[in-house]
Specification:
Length: 383
Amino acid sequence: MDKAKLDAMKTKASAAIEKANEFIRVYGDDPSTEQSDKDAILDRVAHITSAMEFLRKNPKTADITDIFDPLLPAFNGLIAALQKPKHLRLPQTKPTNILSVTMARRDVKHHPDNTGRIQVKDFRLKISEYCELGGVRDTAVILLDLLMIKVAKNEFGNRSITLSLKEYMEIRGLSDAKSARELMRKDASALFSIHFEYLEKKSWVAVNIASAAYQYEDGNLIFNFTPEFYEAFKYGKSFMWMNHAVYKINQSYHPWSKYLYRSIVLHKRRNPCKPNEHALRVRTLLKSCPNFPSAKQIKAKKRGWELAERIIEPFERDMNSLRECLSWNYRSGVRPATFDEWLNATIDFELKGYPDNSALVEKRKARTKRLAKLKEAKGLPKE
């Protein structure tokens, strides 16, 4: 291959690298990106990688291998980034779903024994060392999610989970290592302080999340789950799919985005192939958001003009912050005119890039058939 051709190939390779990098920056992490576009860039990357491999192995072009060798790992990284799963498998149970929307509530009552306590129906929460903690942050809910996602990724192989600072920062989209490390440590301390109880078959079941205080060594958080907390997930093995983009949303500006998304995903999982699979009432979504302003209190102060500013607009703002995860709209096409109409309004949503749930649907159909046969055998009514 003469020098002119080699120079031309080098120029094309460099241009392709820049385009591939631009694609990753702009579209690679966007679930709405068409798969055909992703396939096209992967095809481009594969072709150029092959060309560079040829140049590296060809003895006659040994003088330019120092140019192409460093590019190979870069392209491998680009391919890995494109093929990276966009949804994370989060184990869940009914008690932990309640825990996730309760642990960061600001109306937890401080008791003389320095614990924070709250009861929501058949669920009790107690937080030790409450004054020192200053309460539980919303980010602690995220940390618990990430630790449980690692448990699932490891196929429930160990109650001791290691989450690196680098991994945490990447998932959260954080850039300041010092503040991220401090946040991890504070939230891990909060999780260690949490004790909860829930009613099951008329008996209260007591659970601690952590069996020991966390450790932080060489940039790694080591967290140990209690057997009772861990086993509930291990044998239940019920999951929901969380779009990784939801964990990157700035919690200071969009405090309810993750709660709204979690509620939507849970609703979809519980109602596959039903007419309401992609529809929810605003009222239902608000119930999943801890610390959301109370309409009752605003009305009691006779400050009705604040309802839009303090409730409706923050709701729409945080729903819009989920644009990488879902699309949504009011079923009527526009925001309802009055607050009460808005509260009872239905929103339609579509999750972007959501994993195929046909296996779950078939599993539930088979279960329904089995139950129907059992009822028929026992002479019970089918409905």
